[in-house]
Amino acid sequence: MEETERVLRNLYLKYGEKAFSDNLRLKILIKRSLHNQDTKMLLLGVEQGVAKFVLKYVKSINDAKNINSMIDDLSRKAMWPNTWAQKVVMCFVIAKFGLDEPTDVSEKLIVKENTNDQNLLSNSTELPTQEEEFIMDNYDKKLFSIVGRTLVRYKGNLSIIEVPEGIESIGELAFYESKNLKHLKLPNTVKSIMKRAFTNCYDLISIDMSSQITTIGDSAFENCFKLATIEIPETVIHIGNRIFFDCQSLVSIELGHNVLSIGKESFRNCTSLTTISLPKSLKSIDAQLFEGCNNLISIDIPDSIILIEDKAFFGCKNLIDITLGPSLKSLGNSVFEGCSSLVQVDLINGLKKIGDFAFSGCISLLFIKIPSSITELGESIFEGCTSLLNIEMSDRITTIGKYAFARCSTLHDIELPTDIITIGKKAFGKCISLTNIELPYGIVKIGENVFEGCDTLVSIILPASLTYIGNNKINLTSTQVITSEHKYWEFLTRIK
Questions:
Q1: Per-residue DSSP letters for 133-157?
Q2: pTM, whole model, 2 decimals?
Q3: Contact status, residue 193 vs residue 174, Cβ threshold 8 Å
Q4: I need a labelling partner for 286 at 20 to 30 A (CA). Which of 146, 204, 456, 477 fits?
Q5: CA 391, CA 370: separation in Å to the nearest integer?
Q6: Residue 137: its pLDDT value, please?
Q7: In percent, how much of the chain has pLDDT > 90?
Q8: Can you tell me the distance from the alpha carbon of 26 to that of 43, in angstroms, rounded to the nearest whole number?
Q9: Closest C-alpha to 431, from 448, 452, 400, 415
Q10: Is the C-alpha dihedral spanning 195, 201, 205, 208 positive or negative?
Q11: Among candidate residues 246, 258, 249, the one with its CA nearest the CA of residue 212
């Protein structure tokens, strides 16, 4: 048994579980009794709750499952070097159980990254370099917990914070719910901000970012209600999910030109954001990225964008105009749903898919042209577009989904594609300005109540190719012009 393990074991035997469950008392005992290279790591381990975890959950020195769980938490969440995590956890395990019983736990431990690690009970734990020692020794320990080059936890209550020079990573939850924090400065040594690092810092107004950051993790600034502006440096390549979710005061943000990905919901409910320019390096706009950005007026979609995912602009009530680039292949479901100020959208040829509900509730949309590359119109795609006067569809469209144009109350005339085969139920329901419509030859099936509530409809031209109205098979020997007296009229127009 080594000195560190022997000292901890003696403390446990002398003072018992009560002392090991009291972090403050245990730290005092360690400081008084142990004076070697492991002392600092053990003290940090106590702060991270290692001793309490071992007391409560670890059942024996061979309990690899729970031992691994604690090591993994230190390595993954607190960003400890794996050898440090293993050393500290095993020191407290040996303090509790001693080494009287044979142990094969070292063979069961999950060792990550450090493939040259020796037996956990050996003296192989890495020692900090001189530079790391400087970082660890030259900061206010009442304010920060630092492991290696990672700021693990901020413990203060100040309004202005400057992170110590030399820190390379802001750990997960490091500043979580830090009260009174208003202004933060990161040194240029910081390269990554881990997930939820600043979540729920409700009073944070500004942050001076490091010029060397490459990665910002999920929810890093989520619920920072007062954060007004931020500049993302050119070094950033990946931005996680929900990074600025619910940052209700965020007015502007500058994104670096090298960003390859911005995670879903990253700007969701940023209700003060009015405009944003996306970098040309971006290939997709992820799901719900700008959902609920009620004051977003305009956005430049770079030509590099191939995909705009579901609900990307859902509920952007003040978005007036948007131009889509030539590389765009797919628009997701509900992508512009509820964009009530959107007047015009130019859909480019080459677009392969428009998702269900894509423009539903766009009550200011006046005109839309569907490019020839589109062959299907999905469910409720233009439902509730109450200002839509005209729509131009390519003849290549074969399917119009259910409710596709329902409640388009100003749509008075529509020319259906010549290649159309099916129209879903209530596709033109409550289009109260529609007077006449011709179904082209070649159409096979239309949904029941397809013209439900079209009170001004005078006539419908049904071709001989039409075989089904809803689930009802019909037999037309020739093209017919039907009116309200015809037996099929009720199937097509009744309110159900």
A1: HHHHHSS-TTTEEEETTEEEEE---
A2: 0.74
A3: no
A4: 204
A5: 8
A6: 55
A7: 59
A8: 9
A9: 452
A10: negative
A11: 258
Rounded Cα distance, 54 and 95, in Å: 10
Query: In 210-308, which residue ranges form alpha helices assigned H by DSSP?
Result: none
Q: Rounded to whole angstroms, how far apart are CA atoms 176 and 155?
A: 10
Q: What is the DSSP letter of 335?
A: T
Contact 311, 286 (CB under 8 A): no
Amino acid at 365: L
- Residue type (1 letter), 294: N
Number of residues that this document lists for the chain: 496
Contact (CB, 8 A) for 251 and 276:
no
3-state class percentages of the chain: helix first, strand second, coil last, to nearest 5:
20, 15, 65
CA–CA separation, 253 and 231 (whole Å): 6
Element holding 461 (H helix, E strand): strand 459-462
Q: At what angle do helices 23-33 and 39-47 cross, to 10 degrees?
A: 180
- In angstroms, rounded to a whole number, what is the distance separating the alpha carbons of residues 442 and 324? 33
CB contact at 8 A, 232 and 210: no
* pLDDT at 280 > cutoff 80: yes
Measured CA to CA, the distance from residue 115 to residue 43 in angstroms comes to 26
- At residue 304's C-alpha, the angle toward residues 301 and 308, to 5°, is 60
**What pLDDT was estimated at residue 376?**
96
* CB half-sphere exposure, 299, CA atoms < 13 A: 30
CB 206 within 8 A of CB 228: yes
